[in-house]
Model the fold of this input.
Amino acid sequence: MIPELGHFALILALCVALVQGTLPLFGAARGDARLMALAPTAALTQAFLVILAFLALMQAYVASDFSVANVVANSHSAKPLLYKITGVWGNHEGSMLLWALILSIFGAAVAIFGAELPDSLRSRVLAIQALIGVGFLAFILFTSNPFARLAPAPPDGNGLNPLLQDPGLAFHPPLLYLGYVGFSVTYAFAIAALLEGRVDAAWARWVRPWTLAAWCFLTLGIALGSWWAYYILGWGGFWFWDPVENASLMPWLAGTALLHSAIVVEKRDALKSWTVLLAILAFSLSLLGTFLVRSGVLTSVHAFAQDPARGLYILCFLLAVTGGGLTLYALRAPGLQPGGLFQPLSREGALILNNLLLCTLAATVLLGTLYPLFLDLLTGNKVSVGPPFFNATFVPICLALFAALCVGPFLGWKRAELWPALAHLRIAFAVAVVAALVAAFAIDQSSTLAAVAFGFGVWLIVGTLAELATRLRLGRLPLRESLRRLRNTPRASIGMTISHAALGFVVLGAVATGAWHAELIRTLKPGETVSFAGYDVTLQRVDNVQGANYVAERATLAVTRGGKPFTTLLPERRLFVVQRRQVAETAIQTNLLRDFYATLGEGDANTGWTIRLYDNPLAPWIWLGAALCALGGFVSLSDRRLRIGAPTRRRTVQAAE
Amino acid sequence: MIPKRKRLWLLLGSLAVLGVAVALVLSALNDNLVFFYSPSQVAEKHVAPERRFRLGGLVEAGSVKKNGQEVRFIVTDTHQSVPVVYRGLLPDLFREGQGVVAEGALGPDGVFVAREVLAKHDENYMPPEVAKAIKEAGQWREKR
Done:
């Protein structure tokens, strides 16, 4: 009964979305206030219905209702409750429903908080949102219905993919989707602006918080995914340039560019049509990511067995969204009023450089990801483009971006001088060079690139702090005066400082782990000891352990350093009984400066067990840095100038920037 | 500055960045393309030793032999087969009779020395290249 209610709610939601996607558009075109007033009500109704459908599916999972085919395929009565809940989106149908859920909630949020938007803009934004919703709801209902029944109901389900039974992955998809779908709102705003033929500072003030929020969630989602890959896959790496990872990186890069160009629209009323274009591209790349994951066209560690018909649907939808958006852009963008003028050397110029480099990065990743697909279509040759390609292209462009990143915030709007900005960065430059030299000679003499990149990481941190110090006139004014200035600094600027410095931490962590890690694979019998990276590791014993829905072999590894006990690691090898699948559970001892990492391979008492050990310097900084980066975004989001609804109120006195 | 000059500057800047990017991409693609071959293609093309490529097919049943960390197995597309040696931990989903993709190069003795054996998230998943290779060898049976 409840699954049917969910199914009906979803069908009703599609009908409501169809109404919301059409009538308000007519209303806005004709200036009919009654038709426009339909949009917010419809958005709230649609959100209510989709939430109802989602809860119905969740109920089926929690209660282990095995008359629902989706629950049978992806759940099991012996699964812990947390994974029964997260199992809802741990499969294709449920994850698409999650996407539709977030989309409709965001639509409702625009309806609720957008009361102060001009009526025509709001109804157009909501209508575009609804049309995207129509695409996804129809996709769910016609190709991947999560509520399909199975008769007769089997006594128990097949269980969830064991790799997904992990707290890290449980929250990876929702965060990622919050990011992907957040860009649908900026897309809707971009299309609505093109329909209106007007892009102004008030528009940018609406777009910026949405971009910022989507960007923060996407950052967290990517970081969580990378962290999960690090400790679950047991390869010790954090980024594999896998097509599906790239699929989430591309919208992130485009979104980062959008975040920065929206500032120029808001402050200087320039770069308008470029910003609109970026908003269209960012969402298109999000959809492309979904297409790549869901269609299985690319060989990837993430590739799940999928139905090509679904891929075709998403591809058509992608073409409609991108093609429609770009066509409208081509027709309307030339009509947008050009805005404020500026010299090439200025804050605007620096932000353009940022955008150029970020878009080039996104294009490089896009090319590397899709090239195998094109080559296969054209010549039938199967190739793969791996990490060496990305290291050779992505890294140099990144370094150029990092070099410019610290200089930009020192440049004034409209016109600026380069030398005074560089003079402020003398100390940062010196510190970075020293760090690179220390890395090159003291840590590792084999990789110049790693040493240079390490120097850039330090440059990002010190250079960003130098900007903050200059802003506060630290050391030139009494400390109390500097602190007062810190309190008066707009949150958006504090957020920028945090995020830019955090990027430096990510770079340091990535360089140190990538270039300077130590790795050892050895077969050990109980009682045997191996020395590794200054530690002595003894395999004491291997026990059999019984888990909730798995049995495991658990190794006890005693790690000593210079004769003194350092830690005990307990890596496991779990056999999930229902699926007959083995998953390695790594054991990581971290002190925030380095990770000592162990995984247990196959083996038995006679031949010994294969043990894999890693010593990863600064590894935790990668994810802590990324979390800090997102935190900077949230701090910036809390700026009252960006607070939703604030744009139309009288502007409060702003602290000097 | 007049808008025309501004636009020219922008254009030049974009072209410079794009040019550098294109140069980087082309040189990187040249060096780093890794081709995918099935065992039949390996036999037919006489792939040079030390040339890095991906080998895909099924792990032949009964061929997996472990000796410490060294694993030897045979990858087959049911038509031709290639012996493989790999030192390291195999992915959790490595099974006899299942699809596998290994990256590495042929040694002088004709044994494929794998540097990496790729894992999959899903046991029903067959890498598309492997499915195609097996189809081409004429041995494909539709499952499910």
Notes: DSSP finds three helices and seven strands in chain B.
